[in-house]
Input
Amino acid sequence: MSESPKRRKPPQKSRPPKESAPDAEVLAPPTTEEREDRWNLRPRTFAECIGQNDVVDALKIAIEAANQRKETIDHVLLYGPPGLGKTTFARIIARELGVQFHGTSGPTLERGGDLVGILTSLEEKDVLFIDEIHRLPKAVEEILYSAMEDFTVDVIFGQGAHARVYRSKLQRFTLVGATTRAGLISPPLRQRFGIVRELRFYSEPELMRAVEHSAGILEIAIGEASSKEIAKRSRGTIRIANRLLRRVRDFAQVRSDGTITPAVADAALRLEGVDEIGLTALDRRLLDVVVNQHLGGPVGIEALAATLQEEVQTLEDMVEPFLLHSGLLARTSKGRMATEVAYQHLGVERVERSSRKAGQRPLL
Ligand code: ADP
Output
């Protein structure tokens, strides 16, 4: 996946030049990447981005300063739960710098040669985006150290006593790393990023703006009350808001007269298994296990994963962050605990551990 703003096709001259000059962008046929962005409802400029103001400001300043000095910007590390905009920001950085975007991910770079091949193909100032950078194999990660710091890589030819090392000079590039798990990035890698920023969950008003903006692009008529219904059930994530909007549109078309009302949105989202605060079946199962099987906790993540038959990583990356953010779950040194809010949401009365134990019937 690489895009090339430099090599964009020139606008087609479909009109005589004298006519009130329409924007060249309008006449240019959309590139594959533009069509993809439209389908993903992905903002293409910082101005189109919703929220994350501190991150946007920091990136804009870095880009403007670098453009004025005709340099490239420092390496950028973006971290936060999935769907908050890490890939989107990386693409915008490349576009604002007017350079090519090259995207890859930690788990796909299995061997050092895979990364060296990409690094040596980069042109001056290009942006290299590595998603899930915490999953880079150690040997591959070590190649990044000199590439990021000195813009060099060591290429080894031959094996054993005949092995020879050639140092190859790279073009100055910007690495944008993305991770859902900043804590898993090793200190030597982390220290090589000049800009380190966390993306946070979006607020309800921001999600409403996102729903209304996406509805405009998709030509869906939606009122404020319905967009609020979708926003409050989107787990603070614009990607989820966009997905739910599409499901609500389908539901309105098939089960109703096509009009989206709060009641239609509610029915559509219940059918999707999303409750009134955005929890999915897995979220509710996790809370249920903590509350009912572990008396509210604390319970370790491994035990939870085993009971739910899910990967620890899925729980840590996809499930827990929103439960922690919305105050349903608390993380302590002994494990995860359900909060009062969780009990209220599940409609379960809290029973103190001691009284539960005292009230337990003997097994024999
Ligand atoms: P990540 O890389 O963090 O998983 P993405 O950058 O792929 O997330 O974002 C997922 C989707 O969410 C995008 O396709 C876009 O539709 C939407 N999105 C993300 N951030 C924003 C933002 N700041 N403003 C508007 N839409 C956004």
In short: Residues 40-43, 49-52, 82-88, 178, 210, 238-239, 242 surround adenosine-5'-diphosphate (CB under 6 Å).
